[in-house]
Fold:
Amino acid sequence: MYDAHGRQIDYMRVSIIDRCNLRCVYCMPDTYQEFQPFEDLLSYDEFLTVLRAAIDLGITRFRITGGEPTVRAGLVDFMRRVTALEGLQDVALSTNGLRFKDLAPELYEAGLRRVNVSLDTLRADRFREITRWGDISDVVAAFDVARAVGYDPIKLNAVVMRGVNDDEVFDLVEFALEKQVKVRFIELMPLGTAYPWAAERWVPTPELIERLGTRYDLEPLENGAVRGYGPADYYRVNGGAGVIGFISPFKEHFCQACRRIRLSADGKIYPCLAWETAAVDLKPALRRGAGLDEIRLLLARALEIKPPAHMFEEYQADELKRRVMSRIGG
Ligand code: SAM
Ligand code: SF4
Structure:
């Protein structure tokens, strides 16, 4: 399936809940309570209808995310039904890791093989400052359990913030090499609570690559050379000791290479993370029992309105503040 700008769209991020058991400083205010009532969220049956329709259109790779997907009851059974979908090529989970160590064996048994765990720091006190109350040992355990259970690939996602955790990028790489996971550094985006301070905390990827290059031999890998269809550019470390990825939303070609759409927990398709206004609401159709044909048409409509680029630079402050990643589906 191609959008109006000729990009092949084959990947959907599916947020199954907007709630979270953390309040990371760049994602949600600590007092954030504007969560959607449970009845407004799609049911698992409704999600599966959308996924079925998406697969029919060639969108065959999914990432289950949130909010924090592991806080929604019934995740394991849902995963079992997702992995059984005919035509599905790939499904992965994004998690903050707090509950993953307990769920990892059951999710694996339900067919999940790929997991991304967010971890921005290796220091317990800093972790608590960034996440507001998380216990880092739960997240470290998530990597160990994921490895022991057999997940592959396991990715560590770290948002890099100047003056907050950018002094730890080498430590994070060493941790990832030791745990045999792929580390991906994400540029901070000026969304939600990260607006406006993201501008002064932002560490551009080229600067980070230069810094890491002072210690490691970094060799760019062709896109697709490592398993993954996300937006990261990957580099081989020291001839093959590991792989580092960089996710750079401000890079010139980031949007041209975009092959994804997002489904929010309340059933809206967001063709672009940054355009909250351009959304197609699937819930009314799902709730009146629309068939796959109608859902397919609505999905096709979402691809038609997918904008060419995010244009973060041109937004007004109130627009940026309103965009909470956990709601749109990070
Ligand atoms: N709760 C899960 C987690 O933290 O991995 C999944 C959802 S979370 C919204 C997905 C990713 O978005 C996380 O890696 C998080 O660090 C990232 N994120 C949230 N707000 C961000 C921002 N303002 N800039 C860059 N990345 C952000
Ligand atoms: Fe929760 Fe993930 Fe947002 Fe942190 S980044 S508050 S873990 S949804």
